[in-house]
Amino acid sequence: xxxxxxxxxxxxxxxxxGVTTNFHHSACKVHGRDPYAIMKTxxxxxxxxxxxxxxxxxxxxAKCRGYEFWRNMPILPGALWLYESLSTKYQVIFTxxxxxxxxxxxxxxxxxxxxxxxxxxxxxxHCSKGYMNPKGALMIDDYxxxxxxxxxxxxxxxLYPQVWNTQHAIAxxxxxxxxxxxxIQAAMKALPGLSGQ
Length: 197
Ligand SMILES: [Mg+2]
Known about the structure:
Number of strands: 5
Bound molecules: magnesium ion
Order of helices and strands: EHHHHHHEHEEHEHH
Shape: globular
Low-confidence stretches: none
Number of helices: 10
Largest sheet: 5 strands, parallel
Distance between the termini: 13 Å
Number of domains: 1
CATH class: Alpha Beta
């Protein structure tokens, strides 16, 4: 049987937006905000763009949509290093929300293939992270609600420090290399090593 059908553990569900893709940069741009300026004044710990921009959820997603939006998100610094390091221990599976505009999932697959090439074997574009299998699995995500949904069913997790979550003090006081290094270190300790090879 081909190796691709063999399930390896532990698994790492690696988030895209806010961990590997710079969704915030693209969202700021389409809403006419300077992404660099806005991150400096972003209310620490506030996840929602709506509050920060003073707009409704409908107004937010009315512009964050379409193939080009999702396809052109910049890659976050540290993403390749994170993926390569995690892959030494985990079967990495990219997991990301596909919005309902009909283009998001395809654009995200194309995005992954551009930056991660043929090495990307697995990606799950889903509707809720509470549906992921928690057995022998670690989730890395920048959103507390996703972390909660996964830990409540028994999964291990690491909240990726960003200014919009509760780890904002780390995000503020560290550069991307330090943040990525910390996340890799925590991931290496989180679960026993790879099996099933
Ligand atoms: Mg995210």
